Amino acid sequence: MNSNSEKLSHAVFFALALSSISALVLITVFILVQGAPIIAEIGLFKFVFGMTWAPLKGEFGIFPMIVGSVSATIGAAILGVPIGICCAIFLAEFAPPLMRNIFRPAIQLLAGIPSVVYGFWGLIFIVPSIRDHLGGPGLSILAGSIILAIMILPTVISITEVSILALPSSYKEGALALGLNRWQTISSVILPAAKSGIIAAVILGIGRAIGETMAVIMVLGNAVALPESVLDPVRTLTTNIGIEMGYAVGAHRQALFATGIVLFVIIMVLNTTAQYIARRK
Amino acid sequence: MGDISQPKFEIRDLKAYYSDREVIHGINLEINKNEILSLIGPANSGITTLLRTLNRLCDLNPESRQEGEVVLDGKNIFDHDIVVTQLRRRVGMVFDVPTPLPLSIFDNVAYGLKIIKMSKADTANQVEQALRMSALWEEVKDRLSTPGMSLSGGQQQRLCMARVLALEPEVVLLDRPCSGLDPISTARIEESLMEIKEKYTIVIAPHNVQQAARISDRVGFMLLGDLIEVDTKELIFSDPRDQRTSDYVTGRFG
Ligand SMILES: Nc1ncnc2c1ncn2[C@@H]1O[C@H](COP(=O)(O)OP(=O)(O)OP(=O)(O)O)[C@@H](O)[C@H]1O
Ligand SMILES: [Mg+2]
User: Pairing between strand B226-232 and B218-223?
Assistant: First the structure.
């Protein structure tokens, strides 16, 4: 290849790479420009910790929604992470090849189901069961947590499994050769050795749960109030934007972008932490 | 323990397979207590397979299968009532590449002890003993809490030996423990092997014929899955019965 065409292909690839990064930059700048002024006007503290969200009266406090996002996400983590990790251990250490070949694509498929379908299923199936068996309106933190727990499984399982499989087989052999049984080997050698990968898997799963919108709109009830139990409805940061964006104008619209900034920051922090932990090692 | 004259291991008509391929063709071998037995042979002789059979580490490979008997202190290790984890505790193994765990030096040696629930005080004592036996104590006693991975290759290998010795096995299997080690580390490991044979039975795949000559009591020569002969080191190196043994130890092939 002569040097001119090589230069040309360089330039093409560079331009394409640049375009994907510039999309990120554009979106970030846009959200900041739209949302920052109102945060400056209200004051960051009042915006983040304000208890009242009343757009018509010009009151924009998102604290109940932060609580909503955090509680639904923590619930998802409590339900989904142990199942996900156990499933990954099973796939990496115990499953016979045939079963592994069925489970892996099935779990990937779980990641491909559109979130509106999860939400619909939750609304038809989980919400009424909670209402009938546990009380409350059914539309609740619990319902959202269950749906989100299922949605984060593929992330948690695949990253955990990859980090277990990436361990040198010598760790396992060394432990088994000392007379440890399989469970002792897993708990005392494999899990500690794969720790950073597993933590990264959990954080990425949490990031996915916090950013999810469609599925939770349908099952969380969306009430802007501090919940008193897991059977109470809440509204998350994402659903707040999703529900009101259609008709918001002026300061209201800016406040929704400001909500987006808060969300953006939370997810950036989670992703950066995950990457940092995964890379440490 | 049984009486002194009884061999530690008696291997009778042992055949080993991977899938359907027979790679050990019916071996008979006795391994005495408190001896260092070296198994030498060119590549693919089946030495690794034989060693991994002795503590049933072969079981990890679902393709592998054995026939015949391996009797340890009068009991066949293939019997159904054998508890494999207990067997592996009695018959420890050191691999060719050092395999420290991502733990501190102390914890690398202690973690097998933790699993058998030894008390803290006993553990500290046992770790020191094991590190002394593997000739590592003097080099690491001031930095027991640093990661095992921070040691040199030779030190890591002695750490792995200490990890096995800490559990006080009866037999220690070593598969080329000195490959890739510098001469000084190699000498250290050889010295400590010769010291600890009073307490243990040692079966080693040495790194080369010279190492076998330095440390062994008896030497077995294996070739393509057959045990050609086994005898005292003196006889194997000066007056072997089989021409192939003689060719191998004099460096004419392999
Ligand atoms: N996991 C395995 N799967 C299939 N075949 C194997 C496996 N391990 C070893 N073999 C085969 O078994 C035979 C004996 O191998 P083994 O590793 O026991 O020999 P060795 O004497 O230790 O050789 P080396 O000098 O290379 O260490 C070889 O033909 C090898 O190809
Ligand atoms: Mg070998």
Answer: antiparallel
